[in-house]
Amino acid sequence: MLFYEPLFLFLFGPAVYLLYLFFGEVRARRAVILFAASVVFYAWSEPVFILLVFASVGLDLYVGQKIAALSVGGVILDASHKRSDRESRLASEAVTALDSRSGLRPAGTDMRKLWLALGIVANLAILVYYKYTGFLALNVDALLKALTLPGINIPQIALPIGVSFIVFEKITYLVDVYRGVTAPARSSLLYGLYVFFFPKLLAGPIIKYHDIARQFEAMPHADVDDFVVGFSRFMLGVVKKLLFADTLASGADLIFAHDVSALGFAQAWAGVLFFTFQIYFDFSGYSDMAIGLARMFGFRLLENFNMPYVATSITDFWRRWHISLTSWIREYLYFPLGGNRRGEARTYVNLWICFFASGLWHGAAWTYIAWGAYNGVFLVLDRLFLVNRLQRLPDWLANVIAMIIVIVGWTFFRATSLSQAGALLALMATPWAHASAPIAIPEEYVVVALVAGAICVAQRLSLYVKDFNWGSAAQRYALASNSALSMLFLAALAKGLADPFKPFIYFRF
């Protein structure tokens, strides 16, 4: 079920919202309504996999209770407190200190770690089976055949929607309980709601348990302001997806479907630029819908994008792009690996490992792995010298250089193979290369790409205006902005009904 489908817009969404408003006077009843709606929402797309998620939720709750029961003298921090990077690192380090205190028996320490390992392995096993079994079998088969040995059968395993997001969120709960950052969930209903909460279920943002636990315990009752702000944000997301991302996707698909040998310099750049804008408007559009829907029910989700294409370095880009994933990697992988506390060389290795893992998380293909490793290299280069060099340049020039690095990375991400990515990059570096035959790119694709580019340029220019904020500007001219947004929303719905279905890019992850 998609947020912009008639089934959701005109039946499921309004029905759930009205139930929540008019039959949710009691906090517990609001939780039941949202949980039931979220289960129906996911079961509509994944009627079989949801049973495994239920079993996994039960295991998480059991493991969390076991870990908490073995903790003696630990301090549980306020789950609603928004922590800084330093506080997150200190929370992780505090576990080691607590484990060494006399208040926690060595046997208890070992058992806590064993229970945590069990919970994490059980969750990762779900991810590995559904997402990577086919990829591993394919590569083993290729290796065996290269050695002139008999191949193996390649299993065909359907990837459940949102499995990567679900697994990562469930791991945060176990680690947060282990670290003493938050207490175990007060009820299976609240933890189930955290896992299945339908606005963010399919493609994030990745919500860490300690960031949302207090809100689920309070189960806020939505007011008029929540509806207005939330629905406006939802409309913006639909416009981004249907008017921009889907049109840009058609342009990218047109180029990437061609034999690379038939393309030229201009066509290669056009295809990659189409995708560069597509993935931004597609993924940020979903995040807008998720944040907007959650706000309509009274919940505040953390932002997932902050104008990433104005970045002046790759480090800056990753502070602005898919913020929830970057934050997850920092807290649950980078800090446990040692962060930047074990010398420069280890810091560089940790950074690269984290983004190599990010590439693997995105997809079971060598192109995603290459993309992750590529970003990891540039993050290391940033720490070595690149950020300092870019800071000496005018901001606009540093932005251009950073975007070229990002665009090269998106070439790996979108390509169907490493050979296609390499051929496209070679064409993009050869201005005199011409297509063997003209490729007719519809004018509407070009117009939408130009408008998308103009929006990103406007974001960059807005940084030069003192105290300018896009949200404040929209509120200042509320009538004009809401009227324009409403008309674009209706146009987007009309286009969505008329055009072929294009899933969100991150549904694959």
Question: Main traits of this protein?
Answer:
single chain, about 500 residues, mainly alpha, 20 helices, about 70% helix
List the helices and strands and how they pair.
Blueprint: H1 6-22, H2 27-45, H3 49-69, H4 85-100, H5 106-146, H6 163-179, H7 188-196, H8 198-201, H9 209-218, H10 224-256, H11 265-296, H12 314-320, H13 323-337, H14 344-362, H15 366-391, H16 395-414, H17 418-428, H18 443-462, H19 470-476, H20 478-498
Helix pairs in contact: 1-2, 2-7, 3-5, 3-6, 3-7, 4-13, 5-6, 10-11, 10-18, 10-20, 11-16, 11-17, 11-18, 13-14, 14-15, 15-16, 16-17, 19-20
Structural summary, described in words:
With 509 residues, the chain is mainly alpha-helical. The chain is built from 20 helices and no strands. The protein is globular.
